[in-house]
Amino acid sequence: MIAIRRIWIVVVAGVMMALLYTLLLLIPNSRADDDKLSQQLDLISQLLARDIELVRAGLESDFYAGPKRPSDAWLEQLIKQPNQADLKLNGLMHRVNGKVWNVSAGFDRADQIPRKLETKHWLCQPSCRLLLRISRGSDELIADVDLPQWLSVQGSRLGLNLSVAGATRASLQKLAASSVEQDIGLYFSSRQSDDWKSASGPVLDGVPMILSGQRSDPPAIAVHWYVLLLLLVLTLSGMALLTHLYGKRQQGWRQLFRQLEKTLSAIESGNFEVVQKRLVGSMQHAPELARNFVRKLAIYGLQDEATKATLAQISNDKDWLTQHDGMTGLANRESFHQLLQQTIHDADSSALLLIDIDDFKEINDASGHQLGNDMLIKLASILAEHVQLPYRAARIAGDEFAVWMPGSTLEQGEQLAAKLLEASRQIMLAGDNMLHRLSLSIGVVVAPEHGNEFDVLMTRADIALNYSKAQGKGRYASLRDPDLEGYLLKQRFMYSRVHSAIRDQRLALAYQPIVRVNDGSISHYEVLLRIEDEVGSYVSAYPLIQAAERQRDVGVLDKWVLNQVLTLLMQMRRNNQRHRLAVNISGLSMSDAQLTETLLQRIEFSGCGPALVVEITESAALENISLTQRNIERLQALGCQVALDDFGVGYSSVNNLLSLPFDYVKVDGCFIRKLSTDDAVIPLLEFLVTISKLRGFQLVAEFVENDKVAQQLEQIGVQFAQGYHYGKPELGRLSLEHDDDQTSQTGQV
């Protein structure tokens, strides 16, 4: 009897330890986590307010420009029309003098909407909904905003469960139906559990709508998987002994074991759909001693089932993103490439349009990346309106778009280009104290006359595009333009300098330090390419790189730079110096499988991977996410670190920061230059710092030019910086001149 008690004590102790370990995983680590959650909720609340205002402003513009008496079809079309935010609409209602005129599908309980509505109205009768009201004389347009969808998307990106509720609590059960004032509305909120936190203030001024959230904590669920298996194994072993010793309950235990064995098989095979059913059956047949334990297992089974559904949804989203651009919804470069190659031989003639926004970087620098994103979305809407099947539009790079017109002639391509230019001239967006008109440059080519392969056609279209820019922008050009021959000769001359510069040894490398913000110590150096000009001075090689990229031959420069860097690193290694160097690899090189293989082999042969940081531009990284991820993983396998360069130029790519395993993210200088003058930059950088800590990468701020900006970056929490404040790019072997003591201090992150 004593042996039985000892076995029972051991089993119970093991179960309690496992359960305690599981519960500890669910308890927040410290008050700092709660503070971080509150800060995130405040930031998300601000983002939600901004998106609500964007949707309201867009509806107001469309309503003023719309018909006097909108039809049901017009309302449906307005709902489907893409907006500038991630907010979707459940439905729209049109009222005249407070009476319903027409209602779109999806607008629930239209007859219960109060006659008197504010511009933004948070209504709970009894379920809460956000209504946006736009008035035009006696006409009203009322939009029912889909807040749950927005909260679900934002929450999944940050690992949070999000909800909104009113700030005033009331009980509908205590009020008679006749006492509910329809013209005023009733505000209330349900109580959240203690682990939910709320934002410090309402989402919108004057609207009692508070954002609340809790961490969904997916990694903890993964740990529960092993804890669940441990509990089952421990319980099976202990209960098997007790069943043998307690013969009176032998039959009940045997049935329990059968059910638990089936549950284990379902878990191991990934068949979560039957886990709950198996566990409920186990609970029904188990002796009283085991029922509470099996009930807890059933709860864990439900958690794993929900996790599987969430992962399946994320997988579907990723499948869509591999074929489309996340911001505009157009096809991306990879899917556009596949479409062109599949259809290029199906017709005698097909036209290709390559489209670029004029002065896009200057627009971003002058009025911020948000206005740049708005301009990209406007261009995407123009393409969606004018490009109909079987034609196809795509976003190729940051501000570069393309249209494929199978079965079309060069004349038809030029006609479409003229229509797109005319439509773009009607678009004007307000920036910081200035207006920006959407101006396009378009290059038009035709297959097979100008080529029958994707790369060849894109090169020819890029030549025509650059020629149109050289003629004054805001126009199109095709390869049959008689003045294009002189332009081609000039481009060929510039391209010829690529090989002559290498042959005549007129290229050199400059080094600019990247430092730690907290103490100013050097982390590593960025390598920059320079070329000797006619008077013997070394200047930026950017025009040379552009010419090589237009000819799809920039790989020759990438190989030269990488060879020089690897040679330098091997020399430093022989001198027991441990500096690290960051080198840029162009997007064209990274998308060329054969060239990428050559570069990777040279890095592996040198053994200098741990001393190398490879920088990939944002536009190149997001053209083909799956290929970028494979290249990053291969570089990291060689010991290299990988940086995302020029982050924030024309992309809404925070979602990609959550999926691509970068070691560094370099924030583009257009943000850093505005840090002291634009208050909107600070919360953006704070948000990026939060994401960097969650995802394990580090931020590098570019173009830091004075001590004030450096101090602000340190307060925000940005880890690294580079710019003239810390050091200008210098030619020569600057990094070899330091002694071993300084090298040992600056060679590690």
UniProtKB/TrEMBL annotation:
<keyword id="KW-1133">Transmembrane helix</keyword>
<feature type="transmembrane region" description="Helical">
    <location>
        <begin position="7"/>
        <end position="27"/>
    </location>
</feature>
<dbReference type="InterPro" id="IPR001633">
    <property type="entry name" value="EAL_dom"/>
</dbReference>
<dbReference type="InterPro" id="IPR043128">
    <property type="entry name" value="Rev_trsase/Diguanyl_cyclase"/>
</dbReference>
<dbReference type="InterPro" id="IPR050706">
    <property type="entry name" value="Cyclic-di-GMP_PDE-like"/>
</dbReference>
<dbReference type="Pfam" id="PF00990">
    <property type="entry name" value="GGDEF"/>
</dbReference>
<feature type="domain" description="EAL">
    <location>
        <begin position="491"/>
        <end position="743"/>
    </location>
</feature>
<dbReference type="InterPro" id="IPR029787">
    <property type="entry name" value="Nucleotide_cyclase"/>
</dbReference>
<protein>
    <submittedName>
        <fullName>Bifunctional diguanylate cyclase/phosphodiesterase</fullName>
    </submittedName>
</protein>
<dbReference type="InterPro" id="IPR035919">
    <property type="entry name" value="EAL_sf"/>
</dbReference>
<dbReference type="InterPro" id="IPR000160">
    <property type="entry name" value="GGDEF_dom"/>
</dbReference>
<feature type="transmembrane region" description="Helical">
    <location>
        <begin position="223"/>
        <end position="246"/>
    </location>
</feature>
<feature type="domain" description="GGDEF">
    <location>
        <begin position="348"/>
        <end position="481"/>
    </location>
</feature>
<dbReference type="GO" id="GO:0071111">
    <property type="term" value="F:cyclic-guanylate-specific phosphodiesterase activity"/>
</dbReference>
<keyword id="KW-0472">Membrane</keyword>
<keyword id="KW-0812">Transmembrane</keyword>
<dbReference type="Pfam" id="PF00563">
    <property type="entry name" value="EAL"/>
</dbReference>
